[in-house]
Amino acid sequence: MAALPSDGEMREKKRILVTGGAGFIGTHTVLQLLKGGFLVSIIDNFDNSCEEALERVRDLAGPDLSQNLQFYLGDLRNREDLERVFSESRYDAVIHFAGLKAVGESVAKPLLYYNNNMIGTIHLYEFMTKYGCKKMVFSSSTTVYGQPEKIPCVEDSELNALNPYGRTKLFLEDMARDIQHADPEFRVILLRYFNPVGAHESGQIGEDPKGIPNNLMPYIQQVAVGRRPVLNVYGDDYPTKDGTPIRDYIHVMDVADGHIAALRKLFAEENIGCIAYNLGTGFGTSVLEMVAAFEKAAGKKIPIKMCPRRPGDATEVYASTEKAQKDLGWSARYGIAEMCRDQWNWASKNPYGYQSQPPES
Hints:
Elements: E1 15-19, H1 24-35, E2 39-44, H2 51-66, E3 69-73, H3 79-88, E4 93-96, H4 103-108, H5 110-130, E5 135-141, H6 164-182, E6 187-193, E7 195-197, H7 216-224, E8 231-234, E9 246-247, E10 249-251, H8 252-268, E11 274-279, E12 285-286, H9 287-298, E13 304-307, H10 322-328, H11 336-349
Parallel strand pairs: 1-2, 1-4, 2-3, 4-5, 5-6, 6-11, 7-10, 8-13
Antiparallel strand pairs: 9-12
Helix pairs in contact: 1-2, 1-8, 3-5, 5-6, 7-9, 9-11
């Protein structure tokens, strides 16, 4: 494998377009990009994010680096928005986060997910092709593995998504392979995250979903700060050590750094093709274990209510991370204790997320 360029060598004013850059993983990745010397343009429609998050990224980056951040309010499904973004700057690569991501919502509203996630990405590829930007890091997901026949999940495992959200990620992976096969100038890295949690160590940026949280950790934090009375645990009859599902939780800062490592590989090597990497810790943690770890970090009890299983949820999923370690020189640095510590730091400083008062119900 060719040596990956150092951070210093990456500072040749490469401009990265980040779709969905105002979201949870997007903001943390944008901050790391700015600190890594990149020029960054974001396109986001604020569907599940807000402008305040970007202001805090600018504050954390400082006045000098924040000058390298450009923002477009827009939707990938609107070709006029993409025309403006691509016509005003030349991009060296795209990091594609934009998309809806709630499993339960996708089961209830599959058309919404196919419309948003598929059409937006098709348009993005069209404009990348038109303007000669042919390097992408794509935000994929552990959901493409469905309920794996064996764990840990390795990248060449059989893929079998269990819900419409997961199927959009699986279809988009196939789309990336087809596009790259048809046009070998494309280089695409598919990053399959497992369960990103935590927050920036400053407590200034973190996860702030609109409406009822669909993921475990933001739900726990809302119970911890008194926004919700109880944590619903979906399923206590799984064939696991305590009956609750097991997942591979990974610190969001580790996920952000995984994108920097992927970019470095895109710029260093020509014959990448379209290749997938897991971003996880390689360890599984049950829902109840995660609750206990958060209770320890916050110093308070989290009331729970056992509920029936949710449709589309797998029993146990965690990652094999050897491929990312070998090819990208990346591995997770943080454990469950640090994830919960940083999540609580964010929650306690920002009980209503990026808003200063309770959102209207």
